[in-house]
Amino acid sequence: MISVQEALDIIKENAVKRRTELRLVTESLNYVVAKDLFSPIDMPPFPQSAMDGYAIQLSDTTAFHQLVGESAAGNLTKNLELKTGEAVRIFTGAAVPKGANAVIMQEQVLVSGNQISFTKQPSVGQNIRPQGEQITKAELAYRKDLKITAASIGYLAGLGITEVLVHKKPVINIVVTGNELVKPSIDLPYGKIYESNSVMLNAVLQSYGYEVNIIEHVKDNYQQTVDLIKASLTSSDVLLLSGGISVGDYDFVSKALAELDVEQLFYKVKQKPGKPLFFGKTKDKLVFALPGNPAAALTCFYMYVLVALDLLSGNQNSGLSNTTTLLKADFEVRGVRDLLLKGVTDFKTTEILGMQSSAMLRSFSEANCIVYLTQNSGLIKAGTEVPTYLF
Questions:
Q1: How far apart are CA 132 and CA 135, in angstroms?
Q2: Residue 250 — very low, low, confident or very high, per pLDDT cuts 50/70/90?
Q3: What share of the chain is helix, strand, coil (3-state, %, to 5)?
């Protein structure tokens, strides 16, 4: 049995980004850029008005300016070049005509026929966005290893960039085992439970920008387990197994993985919940066998699986963001395993919730963090700083 940190180190050593793909910028949300992007244009591509008002060629001696045209966004009077004493009606985002060196906002202008004067003396460069103010042509626009966000999609599209080379996300399959599991859509027979792990894992994967390729269910039958795992490995980069990894008479996953030559990198972590966690690989594929208990499975996903998926996707800031918060109430740590406890935090203080059983999702459904407490810590007093993983 290994420590939490040892388990994370082994995952990080083996979850190495491999493949890239060219994607449309509009379809690249949450992907990580694999190659530096350089701007093909200046932005803005021309001197641009920052206000609705009047573009002028400013002169200290000119009190009145003659209106000679108009510049709306995308529609500037052709070949217009202002001379001293001339002005153009202009709107936000429109091209500033040649010869203009200031835009005065309309609230500071008096209009009399085709002439304007000012209630406040403007200054050179006022309310003009210079060409290339945001970025110049050939300048680094987006650095590799950054994740694409909604804002960056808008930014890149505004530069005319339509495609981006990104790190390809892993193909993920889920296999859930257990004779006791039935679909939530039927009446619950005595002795059975509703299967929730596959829908939970699918949902949490989606929440972090990952898609599941296939979800399969298998009864507690050895040969069927072998066949289904074999097929699932063929069509995935990462296989998530749920249940059947313990040492009961009907737990066949560990034996099936050994038959399929999946190398065990670790099995069992010194933590609660989620001790019976398996991590292995076969060729370039990774396998996580998660505990069957739902809260334990979700804890292991947050602490380990997410780290691997992020690294495979090129995201070096992998896994949950973490900080330290102040414990809201005294808590006593007993036993020889580290605790991964469901909590609620306001990002300053954290309350450890009740119902911490590995079989219970009720408190998980109310939580927004995992509190990590090390073994044999004894009584931890309120106000003590504790490691807090946010989800």
A1: 5
A2: low
A3: 20, 35, 45
Place of tokens 């406890």: 341
Gap between the Cα atoms of 254 and 95, Å rounded: 68
Class of domain 321-390: mainly beta
Domain 48-129 has CATH 2.170.190.11: yes
For 28-57, the pLDDT digits (tens) are 999 999 999 999 999 999 999 999 999 999
Domain boundaries, the chain: 4-18+169-312, 20-36+143-167, 48-129, 321-390
Q: Is the pLDDT of residue 327 over 80?
A: yes
Mean pLDDT of the chain, nearest integer: 95
Q: What is the tens place of the pLDDT at every residue in 154-187?
A: 999 999 999 999 999 999 999 999 988 888 888 8
Which residue, 300, 323, 339, 338, is CA-closest to 385?
323
What is the reported pLDDT for 380? Answer: 97
- Domain 4-18+169-312 grouped into CATH 1.10.10.10: no
Residue 238 near residue 309 (C-beta atoms within 8 A):
yes
Per-residue CA distances from 369 to 119, 175, 204, 337 (Å): 57, 26, 14, 19
Q: Provide mean pLDDT across the span 6-35.
A: 96
d(CA 333, CA 142): 46
Cα distance between residue 96 and residue 126, in whole Å: 12
